[in-house]
Amino acid sequence: DAGVIQSPRHEVTEMGQEVTLRCKPISGHDYLFWYRQTMMRGLELLIYFNNNVPIDDSGMPEDRFSAKMPNASFSTLKIQPSEPRDSAVYFCASSLAGEHSYNEQFFGPGTRLTVL
Amino acid sequence: AQKVTQAQTEISVVEKEDVTLDCVYETRDTTYYLFWYKQPPSGELVFLIRRNSFDEQNEISGRYSWNFQKSTSSFNFTITASQVVDSAVYFCALTASGGSYIPTFGRGTSLIVHP
After folding, report:
1. What is the arithmetic mean of pLDDT over A59-75?
2. CB 3.0 to 4.6 Å from A65: which of A60, A114, B39, B87, for a disulfide?
């Protein structure tokens, strides 16, 4: 398997622009997670999906952030409008629920977002 | 509530030294799972190990070993004879039913191995 695929790998945009990050999870995995990583705040869970349904979006910082998972093989995280403080590395991860949903996560390579 | 504390922000060693990365966790659940992930400079987090709360056996994988002690709520990670390629940020994580099995990550420990 190719692993979790994220695009783009790097994104530089100007404040106020819309940014869309994309993720393709590992085939067959039923959980998908979006994380944000910054030096100040570490690794933060933004939202996660189970079988394409958003379960918990309490980590989404504000209404400017939205995420969708239209099918089992694709998810997007959108920021509109973007702000400089959104600059971070955004990771997508997927996992396969075991009997007690304890299985490890597989992370994508991340998207490094810079908002000028 | 669950919490993972990695008190060591950064550790610097010289190649071939042994190094231990500490992880202390908090959870009220009796069934939980602990993980270690490695984030090399390339950026992608890589899974290293999973441990469940009912298995306190220590585990060794090559130069890596893990010491799980429920009595002190710790799950420490030791690298023996460190190498430059071990330089990375290491994250400890916890999942438990009380947290809907969604991982709680520590802040990570940056390990720098000098040649």
Report:
1. 94
2. A60
